[in-house]
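User: tokens in, sequence out, please.
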């Protein structure tokens, strides 16, 4: 069972590296440091906020009877947030793919 959970959750951990690479490519050379620092700061803040929100949500449903669908509310909430983030990312990167690549004045493309 443990190996199955590790295998299933591996893409979630690998996606962090892919996200950083995509953000790095989307920023110019001058903005990459600030952009990557912002991404790291956001991840750090969410590392603090997410457990607090998840625990409080779990506290709301902990007294329900076993087998209740609402017991999975923290997981459903996280899935909904990930779905929203995926839609936002897909919309952003589909616009970037179709946008012309114009270098700022004085820089090569």
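Assistant: Sequence out:
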């Amino acid at each position: 069972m443990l190996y199955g959970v590790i295998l299933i959750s591996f893409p979630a951990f690998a996606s962090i590296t892919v996200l950083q690479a995509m953000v790095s490519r989307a920023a110019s050379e001058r903005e990459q440091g600030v952009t990557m620092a912002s991404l790291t700061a956001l991840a750090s803040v969410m590392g603090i906020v997410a457990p607090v929100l998840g625990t409080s949500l779990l506290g709301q449903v902990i007294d329900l009877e076993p087998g209740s669908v609402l017991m999975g509310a923290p997981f459903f909430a996280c899935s909904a947030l990930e779905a929203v983030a995926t839609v936002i990312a897909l919309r952003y990167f589909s616009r970037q793919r179709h946008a012309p690549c114009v270098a700022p004045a004085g820089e090569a493309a």
